[in-house]
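TL;DR need structure tokens for one chain.
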Amino acid sequence: MTILCVRFQLPPTREAALPELLGLLEEFTPVVEALPPDGALADLRGAERYFRRDAVELASVIRVRALALYGVDCVIGAGPGPMLARMALRDARPGLTRAVPGGGERAFLDGKPVAALPGVGTATARTLCEYGLDTLGRVAAAPLSTLQRLVGAKAGRELHEKAQGVDRGRVVPNGVSRSLAADRPFDRDELDPDRHRRALLSAAGDLGARLRAVDKVCRTLTLTVRYADRSATTRSRTLSEPTAHSAALTRTAYDLYEALGLQRARVRSLALRAESLTPAEHASHQLTFDPVDEKVRRIEEVADRARAKFGPRAVMPGSLAA
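>> reply
TL;DR here they are.
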């Protein structure tokens, strides 16, 4: 086990603390990849030799330091590679590290549903299940030629390798991208798609208002759905043009949500993150000659002036994005 996948349990109001927590990981290894809004991958191969401790022992030290220095708990998964560490994180609980030992990859993977494998979407999982390949153990045992006929040559080969525990990923050091996030937790695990969409509408309206307040536009929008079992799904989309327009952000958020194909999913929270921010003055806007769109943009300008004069509660977030 040489790779840790760490998710810090940061409330939305403390997402700015992520760079400091990444600095904590960098005290052990320079090979740290940020996973905004609250996670990171860390390659501990050098650290294991230097500190003469294995990854699980180092994970315990990291957890104690995060609590002592920042008052932040974390959940940690450990594995021989990034994919396995990410999957182990889904089974982890606060205070414990879920580890996949070297040589134990097949035992860890075999009983898991095929949809648990990173990169396997709803459509691919449905196709595999129709042919009885509903667990990773069955996928690993299937002939490579069968998988390639079902999902394609390249995808079939990658799927076959991953199901057998072959993890060719690596940790790529980076920094936390400049971004803004809006999180919408539910009071209880929420199954109603209409409430999911209302939460996305509110979050997109909030993001748009905050982007316009700092004269920024975003190029990428990321949706994170957290479920009742503490697992999460994250999807990103590059926008056709950089924007801070709430209606455009809402449409993209809806598209990301619909693409997940959630059915009776028990959702704990929904979060939107606007990434790849640039100054609004450097962005261009494609004229649509749509009177409704132009009207909404003018209403946004009025609402923004009201917020600036009377405070953020002067206008309900998301009320202008419908």
